[in-house]
Specification:
Blueprint (H helix, E strand, L loop, with lengths): L2 H15 L6 H8 L3 H7 L3 H20 L7 H19 L1 H13 L9 H17 L8 H21 L6 H13 L4
Helix pairs in contact: 1-2, 4-5, 4-6, 5-7, 5-9, 6-8, 7-8, 8-9
Amino acid sequence: MDRTTIENAALELFHKRGFDAVKVQDICAACGITKPTFYHYVPSKDDILLRCYDDIVEIVEAHVAGTDPEGPVVQLLGAYLALIDECERIGADLLSRIACSNLQENRGSYDTRPAITERMEAIIATGQCTGVIRNEADPHQIYLSTAYLYEGLQFMWCLRRGDFDWRTQMCEGLQAILQVKA
């Protein structure tokens, strides 16, 4: 038994029955383990969701590593769209639960990650140098603006239970912030 097996079983149950309907005992039964074994690997049900969001962030880190042959704007947009893909896979209900957990106690899920911040700033600076990104503001401020745009759109998507076209809004918002040449 390992943490990943427990997390995968829990996420499957959360999707089928809803987070609140799933008890730790249900996860244990699905894995064929006892509660002490569960708590040996996982501190809580909420922790499973929070770690799930951390896994999503790792996908973004991989997406912004290196350079994209199609250019910096495509790379930035691709990173955010990959993030959206993963969030949609989790679903609005579970993503809302992650937000609620962070509202009760800041667990750092929405903190900017130094590796991503540094890489996104470098991509933005490259776009500015090549003239593709016309916004001449500090790359750090531009990155924060795009990150906060994403978080706001994620909130709206959750609030509307997935009935919100955040892909289009992200594309249009990113173009406006970056002041991309048409």
